[in-house]
Amino acid sequence: MSDEPAITLYRLQACPYCERVVRKLHEYDLDYRSRFVEPMHSQRNVVKRISGKRTVPAIVDENTGLTMSESANIVEYLDKTYGNAESGGAA
Q1: Phi first, then psi: what are they for 69, rounded to 5°?
Q2: What are 25-82's pLDDT values in tens digits?
């Protein structure tokens, strides 16, 4: 019984691509936890372990079992997965 959010965002401080994802998470009022990673690309081993790449942003969504990187892909995923939730699935 954990109160931890299902979504984890791996990010850098002041990264515009990461902030793009943060804005989308806020838009859908999604709880998430931020994990700030090493600024040096070669030292981002935690990100490589979860996504296979050292790039950020990277997201893990335990609700769906998805792990991905690249801000445009993450934003598209969030739109498709959580964007219709507010409309109750109505077309």
Answers
A1: -130, 180
A2: 999 999 999 999 999 988 999 999 999 999 999 999 999 999 999 999 999 999 999 9
